Amino acid sequence: MTSKKNRQRGSRTHGGGTHKNRRGAGHRGGRGAAGRSKHEFHNYGPLGKHGFKRPEKAQDTILEIDVQKLDEDAALYAADGLAEETDDGYSLDARDIVEDGHEADAVKVLGGGQVRNGLEVTADAFSASAVELIEENGGEAIVSERGQVDEDEEESDEDESKPEDIEPTADEA
C-alpha cells in the first residue's frame, strides 16, 4: 500500500482544502504557546496536588557497595586501618568503608563481580548473590546488630506469639 505522502504527490494542496487554508499561524491556533490559557488549555495536566510524599525522616537511607570493590580494595583498606588482615584473607566492616556509612540507616553489600580473597564482611544486609560469592571463597557474611533479622529468629518469634493448645471445655467435649 502506498503511503499518504506518496498519494498526495501532484496534488496542489495535499489534502488541505483550498489554497487559502494552511496559510499562517491562524490555521494552527497561533504561534508557540499562544492560547495555552484559553483554546489550547487541554495541553496542560489537571491542576492541584497529586499523590503523597513521605517525609525525609521517615525514609530509610540504604547505602550499597559491591563485594568485588571490597575484595579489590581490601589491601588498601588494611593499610588505612579500615580492615584487618587475617590468615584466610581480610576482615572488614562495610560501615567503615562506605562514605557516610555510620550516618546511614543501613549498609547493604551487593553481589556484583568476582571475589578472589577470603573476606569476613560485617554489614547490615547482604544480597543472596553477595553471600554466595563470599562463602564460595571461604569467607563469612556477618549481619550486624542493626541489620536484618534472620529467618530462623522470625520463625521462633512467631512460635512464641501463638497461643498454646487450650483444652476443650465441658461444653465443647
Structural class: alpha/beta
Strand and helix order: HEHHEEHEEEHEH
Which word captures the global form?
Answer: elongated
CATH architecture of the domain at 58-143: Ribosomal Protein L15, Chain: K, domain 2
CATH class of the domain at 58-143: Alpha Beta
What does the model show?
- With 173 residues, the protein is α/β, with parallel strands linked by helices.
- The chain has a domain at 58-143: Ribosomal Protein L15, Chain: K, domain 2.
- The chain is 24% helix and 17% strand.
- The chain is built from six helices and seven strands.
- The strands form two sheets. A four-stranded mixed sheet has the order 2-3-5-7.
- The longest helix has 11 residues, at 151-161.
- Residues 149-154 have low confidence and may be disordered.
- InterPro entries: Rbsml_uL15_N (IPR027386), Ribosomal_uL15 (IPR030878), Ribosomal_uL15/eL18 (IPR021131), Ribosomal_uL15/eL18_sf (IPR036227), Ribosomal_uL15_CS (IPR001196).
- Residues 1-30 have a biased composition (Basic residues).
- Residues 1-53, 137-173 are annotated as: Disordered.
